[in-house]
Design goal:
This protein is an alpha/beta fold and 198 residues long. It has a domain of 138 residues: SPOUT methyltransferase, trefoil knot domain (Alpha/beta knot). It has five helices and eleven strands; from the N terminus they run βαβαβββαβαβββββα. The longest helix is centred in the first third of the chain and has 14 residues.
């Protein structure tokens, strides 16, 4: 069990293909949040620069290779442009659920689509029509794969973070709501308050 409140099958792996040119602090905080939510032993990072391996090894298994080069079986790519939505039954069909590690622009640029082109045999599923942060995407996928249909997950449309007197930053992405609060990395919130914006 974890903070989201669900257990899941041991073989289920959440794989993040890092797609940014470097490991930005924001990425690192989202990746740490993923590890906290699903457990270090269930997280894999790929396409990571050799100099960043040590930083990410605290949060999961790390490979410098791209996921397409690992020749994994029973894979599913979470692609916003996929025709089918992820369903609880997909937990029985795939063992590796692959996400693009992206600091998303709004509107989305479709960078995850490159993964699907490199892995034509992988299943493809979406997590709704709206763009999600990487950590929220993993949290949503975990909820679905452990038995909660997408339609039953509660979201907050955006997140406003106060950074000072009469100042705030708005993250224009949906966040899962648990116990009336948005599920977000506390360290990311603190980082944005110190940084005072993007």
């Amino acid at each position: 069990m974890d903070a989201v409140g669900l257990s899941y099958r041991r073989y289920m792996k959440f794989l993040i293909e890092h797609l940014e040119p470097k490991l930005y602090r924001w990425c690192l905080l989202e990746y740490k949040h993923i590890s906290e939510r699903v457990g270090k032993k269930n997280v894999i990072f790929t396409n990571v620069n050799a100099r960043d391996k040590a930083k990410l090894s605290k949060f999961g298994e790390v490979y410098t290779k791209k996921v397409a080069k690992l020749e994994l079986e029973k894979t599913c790519i979470l692609d916003p442009y996929a025709k089918e939505k992820l369903k609880p039954a997909d937990a029985r069909k795939s063992g590796y659920f692959i996400f693009g590690g992206i600091l998303g622009n709004n509107p989305a640029e479709g960078r995850t689509k490159k993964l699907t082109e490199q892995m034509p045999k992988a299943a493809r599923r979406n997590l709704g029509k709206r763009q999600l942060s990487t950590d929220t995407a993993v949290i949503v996928a975990k909820l679905i794969l452990t038995g909660i249909p997408f339609e039953k997950i509660q979201f907050q449309d955006e997140l406003e973070i106060e950074t000072g007197e009469d100042e705030s930053v708005v993250l224009p992405y949906p966040y899962v709501v648990k116990d009336g609060k948005a599920v977000v990395s506390k360290e990311l919130v603190a980082y944005l308050k110190r940084k005072k914006g993007f």
